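Can you make up a protein sequence with its backbone structure tokens?

===
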Amino acid sequence: MKRLLSIFILLLAFTGSFAQNSDLPNDFLNKGWYKERRQKLRESLPANSVAVFFANAVRNRANDVDYVYHQDPNFFYLTGYREPEAVLFVFKDKQNAANGTQYDEIIFVQERNAMREMWTGRRLGADGTKTQLGLDQAFNGSEFKKYNVDFSKFAEILFYDFKNDVRDNARDSADLYSLIEEFKVKVNYPRKDASTLNVAQEQPKNNLNTRGLYKLMADLRGIKTPEEVALLRKAVMISCVGQAEVMKAIEPGMSEREVQGIHEYVFKKYQAEDLGYPSIVGGGHNGCILHYIDNYKPSLTNKELILMDLGAEFHGYTADITRTVPVNGKFSPEQKAIYELVLKAQEASMAACKPGVEMGQLTTVSREIINKGLAELGIIKSADERHMYFPHGVSHHIGLDVHDAGGRTLQENMAITIEPGIYIPDDSKCDKKWWGIAVRIEDDYLVNKEGCELLSGYAPRTVAEIEAMMKQSSPLDKFKLPALESIKK
């Protein structure tokens, strides 16, 4: 027993040192910024309402291994909290606590646990959430069951509806599954499985609103604050450097996965925590698959293009940049013709980008140019012919999501992409010389008063710039690994 007590005391000291010496970067957004975001949301809420946000679930990869945890963007946007098993309430009006104090927000988080922290990392707990994130009304998740606000008094309870995809950790009575189930009881959430459970269910209250938060959060998150723009600029520049360094290093015989690895090494070198989305690295005809993430081709050939769509995530904010380059460093005439057509379309959409313009108009501008150009090249018969060579829109918001929340009418301080592309798969109904050519050029922009600012110009965009960059030497030129077959045990 004394030995167990000694181990427990040691664990408490161990995890206590975690809290004091977190070894984390010091350039995260501060708690005042998140408090302001919650206040902005509160101001936009309807009268006599409460907004409810749940943390993202932990996702299982296989057996006892989970995927690396990633917080729900809305939850992170309002709190800065990066852990699972939590729920946040933002009230329109002041609420009265049992001790007589008033509050207009409250959060329940996972509690400190010496043994679990030794295995899976530091936890803020209720006290850490108060001191580090500025949420004064912070409690351990186990307290949520005793939280006795009368939810029937609210005109609206706004939350995102549940997808029924959260696992129940039977060993934890305050996990996300338990928080959701307890919330459903408190707000009289309709049970679709009532008949099978043989439980009498009351009729659902009409104050549950599972749609209203979409627009409220899009209006907030769509307009970036100066602090967010600064983080986005870092994410974009990190991603641009990755593109430039790959252009220097790439050569025939490399694999798609090796090219992916160079990009992602650059991201990590700059302390980017994550990828904004699975990396897309498609050589030749693989570039015709818009979201090709296999990246499994073992050897890039001398005559093909490689399409590289990657974005670093820095402190939660993600870039989204695509470059298409010739593996051998020199565009063929056909490759150059398609590339310059896509670039022309992008430049035209960039010129059209300004406050008040509908995002769909940027696609219309690119599509008109691409259709006319494809007809002039003989790839389609006429500019009004229906085809699949340009199957997507050209613009979306970026931020905490790679396809971020935001309105469809451009406003100052929105961060967006412009990304036209042409994809000509093998066996297309055109001259064979065009087969396997896939080009997408994607850049990130900040809408300003007069138009937009190109954020990702550091990564070469023109044919001349790309070919010049690819002639430069790379620090990786001398990095050669031994063939596995030659390694002696």
Observations:
- The first strand starts at residue 49 and ends at 54.
- The chain has two domains: 2-217, 224-470.
- Confidence is low (pLDDT under 50) at residues 2-15, 194-204.
- The radius of gyration is 26 Å.
